[in-house]
Every structure is written in structure tokens, then in C-alpha cells.
Amino acid sequence: MIETPLDRATVMLRTRAGLKPEPAARARLERLLHDGAGKAGLAVSSYVDMVETQPAAFEDLLDRVTVQHGGFFRDPAQFKALAELVSASNNAGHTVWSAGCGNGQEPFSIAMVLEETGRRSWQVIATDVSFRALARVKAAVYFEGEIQGLSPERRARHLLAGNTGHLVADPIRRKVRLAHQNLNHAGVGGSIPQCDVVFCRNVLMYFGPADTAACIRRIAHRMVPGGHLFLGHSDSPGPIARYFAPTQVAGVACYRRLAAAARPPAAQPCVQVQAADVIIKPVDLPGLLAAGDRAAALGDLRAAIRAFRQATYLDPNLAVAYFQLGAALELSGDAREARRAYGAAGLAMMRGDGGEDLSGLGGYTRVDLARAIATKLTAGGAV
Q1: Contacts for 139 with CB less than 8 Å, ≥ 6 apart
Q2: Residues 79, 85, 89, 92, CA torsion sign
């Protein structure tokens, strides 16, 4: 049986991100595929080929499928419950995990609550499957329509007005750490400390029953006994009695972590894009490419691949990033993925307007880069 482009995209989203196939979601995905193909000037089947082979194209589709947006203090009652938990805590260190943080309004809302309660020992860690969403959190700038959930008092206290929007003030930004996490992957946990509170809202709604159960288990293993889990109204957690008991805080329904049974072996660290505060390091494309070059020179090809791949997420039209990713993959022995990266570099060159400055980014002029890409794709550089 020949798979349709829609079937292929559904399988990709299911296997790579854990998104459940549903009739309503399928109809929406079909519209998104046609929209994406139209914007790219491609047939739908060719667009799905691009999504399959280009990480940045898949990232873009995933962003649109999962709707990367939110609001400040969305569901205010849950934040009042958080304030009560924080106010009742001791002076030891505590962590709130915003799992699936989207564009950042949720973790910054949490940080505002922590600031307002005066508890300096609390921190926030914000994670998301989307590097673009994390980059947006790192920028911490929001337009007028994105701050409607903030009272005039909170706007005055926690935001700085600028020419391009409203910037979250430093005291709030410093409370938030970022890391890249896919809650559908078994590696969740390496960069997450034991948490006292977890906000995982409107995330489980995208998962099927088996992936939802696995996600709940992974979250539970990163929580202290007695910790509290807040879900979204659209989320269905399924059977979670092994790990959580229903409870209420300030009249708000949530789940309390039961005493932990024997924990599984520590998970391998995930890709962490932020070590402290709210700065992704390296913070810019030249920095990422330079870091990749240094790692490759030192023989650390995994780090080089990671840096170059992150660069493609931040700018899906930067051909040199795809080319350097291809070179690192080729050196690592992954010829198939290297060829895909070289092909993505060629497509990025064709999409470009010729005006981008490649100086300092690997030393390539556009002509040199085009020739190098053509050589790799035609002369067996990556078979």
C-alpha cells in the first residue's frame, strides 16, 4: 500500500514527537501541509520530503501543529495555588518545572509569583521540544497582544517597555533556566533537578494513551514525594494512581506525588541549551558555528553536530550551517544523514536571496559554498 504524504507526515510526528493521530488532528495536519507546501512553492509530497530530511522544516511543522503560544497567568487559579505552596515552604532550595513552556509566558508567570512571594530559594526550569520556542523565551520580549494576562501593577513591576515590545525584567529572567527536552523521549531528566512543583499544561492532549502514561512516569521520577503536578484542562492523564493522588490546593484540583518507589537508573542527559539564567550558550549563529568548528577540531564530533544542528534550528535558511553539519556527520561515518544535510544546504541556497553575509561563517563565499555543496552531492562526498 502506497502511503500518502499525509500518512507519512502523521507517522513522522508520531515517531519523532509522540503526537497521537486523531481524525480532527489529521484534518488540521492536512491543511498545514498544504499551507506549508504553498509557501515553499512545492508539491505536498515534495514538501513532506523536505520535512523528513530537514530538521528545521520538521521543527517548523511541529511548531505549527502544537501551536506554540500561550499567555501570562493563563488559568489564574493555578498560580494562586502555586503562591500558596511557595509561601508555605521552608527556606531550602526548591524547583518549579514548566514542562512544555512554549513561548515563555508560563515560566515567567511562575517566576513573577516567586518574586512576589519573596522566596529567593525557588527557581524555575523551563523546557520545550522546540528550539525556536526556547529562543523566544531567551529573548523574553513580548508584544502588546501577548501580555494581556498581566495586571497594570505587574506590567509596571516586571516589564520594561522598548521599541520592539515589552522586555521581561532581569530579576524575573534570572530565575529561569532553559533546557531542550522532548517529553516523549526516554532521556528526559538529565538536566532536571528534583522538582517540588511541575506545570505540564496542554501537553498531554497531543499524546496517545501509551505516550501519556510514559510521560507521566518520566515527570514523576523528577519530583520529590509530596510535590504537586498541575495539568491543563484539556489534558487527560490516564491512570496515574501509581505515582500521584488527586488533591486540591487553594481549591484548585491538582495531583500530589506519592512516596517514590525504587527509581530507575539515572537518564542520560538531554541536549541542554542553557546552563544558567536565561542565556542560551552560544547565543548567536556565529557563536554556534564557531563552537562547532572548535569541537570538530578537537575531535568531539557529537558536540560539533549538536552545535551545527542547533544553528539550523535558529536559521533554517543558513546554508553554511547545513553544510558544516553535513561535514561533521560525514566525518562521524553517518553518510546517509550527511547527504541529507548537504541536500538541505543546497535547498537553503536556492531559497536565499543572495544577500546574506557568509563572511566569518566558515570562510565561504556564496560561490564557494555552492560549488562545495555541488561537489558533495555529485562527486560521492556523501553517498
Answers
A1: none
A2: negative
